[in-house]
Amino acid sequence: MSGAGYQPVASSRDLVARHVFQACLSGQEIALWRADDGTVNAWENRCPHRGVRLSLGVNLGDRLMCRYHGWRYESGSGACSHIPAHPEGPIPATLCARRFLVAEAGGLVFVALGDDAATMPALPEDTIPLRALPVSRPAEAVAAALVEAGLAAAAPLHFIETQDGASIHLLIQPATDRTCVVHGLAETTAGALPLQRHMARLMESRRRAWEARP
Ligand code: FES
Fold first, then answer.
1. Average pLDDT score over residue span 189-194
2. Given this model, what pLDDT does residue 191 score?
3. Residue nearest atom 3 in ligand 1 by C-alpha distance
4. Of 13, 68, 100, 154, which one has the fewest beta carbons inside 10 Å?
């Protein structure tokens, strides 16, 4: 979805060392991986060689190696730097993994699918991430249900509510046409564990109600 700005695709905790995380945003599969220097890479989940999913590849710390023929792509630039079948051959500069804009804030990872100047959701500085909630309903249907429940909308897919005296930001990730993921950020560090448990129960009951709708 070009022009939608940055949208959440994962928790920062999903990007563990030497791992490749598969995310989906508006039907676009994304291979997310963190290099050893902390750089977060968000690439189209498709090797430029034969189209194999890069999320099946190996995170080498500074490069991602495709699992099929071993082509390697550099963190940051996405440039192909090694082709095992042609170790000495020149590699065209245009041979790159397709990159998306990516940013981290509040313990979440955000991706913008458009090439234009993307905007980040307005978030408070001190937040703790809540458990992400996959929902088998379209993002628009979940947004409509949150409006119906009286939550304040900061943006079409960004809502704010108050629970136990804490402000909770709910950000909806449109995954596919039929599914979404609701990411939560709590604007507090005090009483974090009880609040996280309370929100997990509340969101789970909401999920069941949303998915039971015709
Ligand atoms: S498909 Fe990835 S290296 Fe061949």
1. 74
2. 64
3. 69
4. 13
Residues in the ligand 1 pocket, defined by CB under 6 Å: 47, 49-50, 52, 66, 68-69, 71
Q: Which residues of 100-117 are buried (b: 16+ CB within 10 A; e: fewer)?
A: bbbeebbebbbbbbeeee
Tens-place pLDDT, residues 75-132 = 999 999 999 999 888 999 999 999 999 999 999 999 999 876 789 999 988 888 999 9
Q: What is the pLDDT of residues 147-185, one digit of tens each?
A: 999 999 999 999 999 988 889 999 999 999 999 999 999
- Helix, strand, coil percentages (3-state) for the chain, rounded to 5, are 15, 35, 45
Residue 213 has a CB neighbour count (10 Å cut-off) of: 8
Domains recognised in the chain with CATH numbers: 7-112 (2.102.10.10), 128-212 (3.30.310)
Measure Cα distances from 209 to 81, 83, 147 in Å. 50, 51, 15
What SS3 string covers 106-151?
CCEEEEECCCCCCCCCCCCCCCEECCCEEECCCHHHHHHHHHHCCC
